[in-house]
Design brief:
The chain is mainly beta. It contains no helices and eleven strands. The strands form two sheets. Strands 2, 4, 5, 6, 9, 10 and 11 form a seven-stranded mixed beta sheet that branches. It has a four-stranded antiparallel beta sheet with strand order 1-3-8-7, with no helix packed on it. The protein is globular, with a radius of gyration of 14 Å.
Length: 127
């Protein structure tokens, strides 16, 4: 059974840091591209970062560029999202998503490109 599980969410102060993990099971993980998305109450789901299957290509939304870093450890079947300089507007439920990627440099920025999703983890940034 293919499963993605996010962890690392919680409460952070403005300016603080958190690291999210997306652990995969049941996948041939080195052949899957991954994206991180978030959805705040009353807002549409937003793509914030994505990474190619082997980690060589990444992309960031302007809203998080320079503050968030995506990475992956295929030996551990895990993708990470390091979030620094957190702002109250980063408050949202964060989701990871995966899809197979025929080419190792492919990245996918649209949520409709993904067919496997985690359950989400809440991030709240507040003083």
């Amino acid at each position: 059974q293919l499963q993605l599980v996010e962890s690392g969410g919680g409460l952070a102060q403005p300016g603080g840091s958190l690291r999210l993990s997306c652990a995969a099971s049941g996948f041939r993980w080195p052949y899957y591209a991954v994206g991180w998305f978030r959805q705040a109450p009353g807002k549409e789901r937003e793509g914030i970062s994505c990474i190619s299957s082997r980690g060589g290509s990444t992309n960031y939304a302007d809203s998080v560029k320079g503050r968030f870093t995506i990475s992956r450890d295929n030996a551990k079947n895990t993708v990470y999202l390091q979030m620094n300089s957190l702002k109250p507007e980063d408050t949202a439920v964060y989701y990871c998503a995966a899809r197979s990627a025929p080419f190792r440099t492919q990245i996918f920025t649209e949520s409709t490109s993904y067919n496997y999703w985690g359950q989400g983890t809440q991030i709240t940034v507040s003083s």
